[in-house]
Amino acid sequence: MKKVVLASTSPRRQAYFKEMGLQFECAAPDVDETPLKDEKPRAYVARVATLKALEVKKYNKDAVVVAGDTTVALGRRILGKPENAEDAERMLKLMSGRRHKVLSTVCVIDENGQVFHKTTVTTVKVKQLSESDIQFHLKNAENWQGKAGAYGIQTTAGGLIVRSIIGSHSGVVGLPLVETKELLVRCGVEF
Question: Among the options 30, 69, 87, 133, which is catalytic?
Answer without folding.
Answer: 69
